[in-house]
Amino acid sequence: MPVSGTKRQRAQSSDETHQEIHVKSEWGTLLDRHQVLTARRVGSHNIWLVDELLSIKECARLLSRAEAYGFGTTHYEPSYRGNLRLTTIDASLARVVWERIRALVPRTITLRKPDDEAEKAALWWDHYPHAEGEWEAYGLNECWRLAKYRAGDRFLCHCDEAYVGSSPQEGRLDAVAEMSMLSVNIYMNGGFDNGRTRFFLRDDWRQQLKLIQDASGEMRYHAKEHGAEPDLSVVPTVGQCLLFQQPPGQCYYHDGEELGSGCKYLFRSDVMYRRKRLPACLT
Asked: Which Gene3D superfamilies match (predicted)?
């Protein structure tokens, strides 16, 4: 049966002649001293917006360095996730950006596994059985994922996964000492059409989206073919930062709207947390 998620055809550009690029950088020195920032919480959700986390000049400097390395294709099907990507390990950039946002994120997060099986499944607890307990924020993930979207590129509806710093050993829940709990998306430029980050927050979101099959045979949720309206849309502005909680604390399904024209750049990291203590029932 024909499906609507087949791979799109597009002339190959010079960006697509190689695979995704992995580098190590020290870009923290490209950032200036910065004024005190504030975060706007979106309703009662664990979603925050920070305007001008980076200045226009800082964004331009970072993009210049990134483009000097170039962006490569990923292993994802373009019909699902069409952007190019550059991955860099940059501890200095993580330190400087963390100093700007550390006062704006939850200092501690306490996670409790729900008793209800449906709720556990919805929050992906099967993926993070080690996550119960109290956690304390300590910094940003040094692994930065830089995305470059061109006209026609999109990222279908998905939920960000948490980064786990270590794996449980011999069934010990306390063997996992660190994991990410918040996504950090920094919009780096303007001058493009569409390209919003759109959230589908209602409990019945699966009924509002259409499940389609992409060219690799994977089933993906997609809003466009079904006409689903997002509950929240973030229109990117230069230097703006979007923060939102990851599973198993929350599971915020969102997409990257298909870009109409121009080019959109995004820097992606995570807020990392260390285990502070286990719940009493596990000690």
From this structure: q2cbj1_9rhob like domain
Distance CA 173, CA 58 (A): 41
- CATH number, position 221: 2.60.120.620
Residue 115's alpha-carbon distances to 111, 123, 128, in angstroms, are 13, 12, 15
What is the per-residue pLDDT across 156-171, written as a single tens digit (0 to 9) for each? 888 999 998 765 554 4
Convert the pLDDT of each residue in 101-152 to its tens digit: 999 999 999 999 999 998 898 898 988 988 999 999 999 999 999 999 999 9
Q: Provide the domain limits for residue 121.
A: 37-282
What parts of the chain have a pLDDT lower than 70? Answer: 1-18, 166-175, 204-227, 278-283
Q: Is residue 95 part of a domain?
A: yes
Number of domains in the chain: 1
- Cα gap 70→68, rounded to integer Å: 6
96-122: burial string, b at 16+ Cβ within 10 Å, e else: bbbebbeebbbeebebeeeeeeeeeeb
14 occurs within a structural domain: no
Contact residues for 103 (Cβ-Cβ < 8 A; gap 6+): none
- Read off the pTM: 0.84
Give kind and range of the element (H or E) at residue 140: strand 133-140
